[in-house]
Amino acid sequence: MEESPLHPFELHNWIPISLGGLDISINKAVVIMWMVVALVAVLMVMAGSARKLVPGKLQSMAEMMVDFIRGIIMDTMGKEGMRFFPLIATLFLFILFCNLIGLIPGSYTVTSQIVVTAVFACLVYGLSLVMGFLLHGVKFLGILVPPGTPAWLLPLMIPIELISQLARPISLAVRLFANMTAGHVILGVLFGLAISGGLLIGWLPFAFTIAMNGLEVGIAFIQAYIFTVLTCVYLGDAFHLHGHDEHAH
């Protein structure tokens, strides 16, 4: 019987745990997230502890990563956004390493679970709302009125902007989840064709599998980048109110 391409996304509890009716069981995804946190922490500590005037490979990689994330923040939020550097850097590195580790055969792609991406998206969007109201008070609701909108258009524009705002966390969560899931489903189908095709014709889907793996590495980085940029854009809106018109969704 041919294995379903969705089989790799199934999760089975290794250690069932229930707390007050809430299922917090330990499964493969939980262990992978622990591994990602440990791996990122070890790499950053090692890169930071080996600071030299002439940086080694690990230090160079860490410095490039820091400069890259700082550039995203400065381009979208400006200097005041640097207060969120720890959050943005943690988010980017966690998503990136989750995506990359998920490409290792036998591993698990945590970001292919909508519940994981949805939690991140809701936290990010919720934080942007909290920051907006803390900085601007009720005036933050002005984000629903694009600059230059004539008064007679407000009854139409405000509902449209409200829907646009509510769609932000949904699109943020679904984009990452859908891209990572789709890529792994295609890889699963190609790998299944390579096995069932045998040596005679199986080499063709196998070659596509290798090419897709290379493409998936790029997608893993791009999706982490997009999630981070949109996070900065949403937080930047909390600072600048009408700045949302200048950024693409």
Describe this structure in words.
With 249 residues, the protein is mostly helical. The protein has helices spanning 28-49, 57-76, 85-101, 114-136, 154-201, 203-240; strands spanning 18-19, 22-23. A two-stranded antiparallel ribbon has the order 1-2. Strand 1 and strand 2 (22-23) form a beta hairpin. Residues 244-249 have low confidence and may be disordered.
SSE topology sketch:
Blueprint: E1 18-19, E2 22-23, H1 28-49, H2 57-76, H3 85-101, H4 114-136, H5 154-201, H6 203-240
Antiparallel strand pairs: 1-2
In short:
This protein is an all-alpha fold and 249 residues long. The chain has helices at residues 28-49, 57-76, 85-101, 114-136, 154-201, 203-240, and strands spanning 18-19, 22-23.
Helix share bin? 55-70%
Quick one: how many beta strands? 2
Q: How much is the radius of gyration in Å?
A: 21 Å
Average per-residue pLDDT, rounded, comes to 85
Ends: how far apart? Answer: 43 Å
Number of helices: 6
Shape: globular
Quickly list its features:
globular; 249 residues; single chain; 67% helix; 2 strands; 6 helices; mainly alpha
